[in-house]
Amino acid sequence: MENFSSKLLQAAVEEFSQLPGIGKKTALRLVLHLLRQESGVVRRFSDAMLQLRENVVYCTSCHNISDRPLCDICSSPRRDASTICVVEDIRDVIAIENTGQYFGLYHVLGGIISPMDGIGPADLTIDALVQRVADNPGLDEVILALSTTMEGDTTNFYLYKRLKDFEIRISAIARGIAIGDELEYADEVTLGRSILHRTAYDKTRTG
User: Which CATH number is 170's domain given?
Assistant: First the structure.
């Protein structure tokens, strides 16, 4: 157990070390960095975190993280409302937006089906997606852009079963993303090509 010279230092390190991927040594380095900054810098940092936690909302349409009830993407008249790209979380929205190859709307599931982690369809925004499809007669295509993992494929198949009776195209991103890869770690060129060269979902299944 670390021997801290200050209980205040120890408390700060303990809080930072609760963040994903942050061990005690990294937490200590971050805390010492903040300690060297002027009070105003640290205050802005803490205020930003507090504002994020207390004021951020989820878009009422796509469930993306937003500052307003309807996010900038859903409210933009320049977006193609005939296409919805289904992703796991906001990191995937950012990754796809960075490709500059997709101009439609999104639907953020808030995770993927993972029985091992106790996550089922009811824990995600799947019902909201189905309702959104049902309420949008101008919708032409739903793109399934989930990670190419076992859980991602399971979620894709479940979504396909829920959406296949609607008169829309259901496609999946091309397998330019290696099996087992997460979208946020794919390079922008590969991810962009996977979006552009998407195929009908029922043609991506084997067996």
Answer: 3.40.1360.10
Report the candidate in 103, 64, 98, 60 with the shortest Cα–Cα distance to residue 81: 103
Backbone Cα Rg of the chain: 21
Strands 141-144 and 169-172 turn out to be: parallel
- Residue 30's domain comprises 7-55
The pTM of this model reads: 0.79
Q: How far apart are the first and last CA of the chain?
A: 54
Contact 87, 59 (CB under 8 A): no
What is Dmax (Cα atoms) for the chain? Answer: 66
Q: pLDDT tens for residues 59-90?
A: 999 999 999 999 999 999 999 999 999 999 99
Assigned token pair, 138: 């101008």
Query: Do 201 and 144 form a contact (C-beta atoms < 8 A)?
Result: yes
Same domain, 33 and 92: no
174 — alpha (psi -120 to 50), left (phi > 0) or beta?
beta
CA pair distance 178, 197, nearest whole angstrom: 15
pLDDT at 135 over 70: yes
Neighbour-count burial of 95, counting CB atoms closer than 10 A to its CB (0-12 exposed, 13-18 middle, 19+ buried): buried
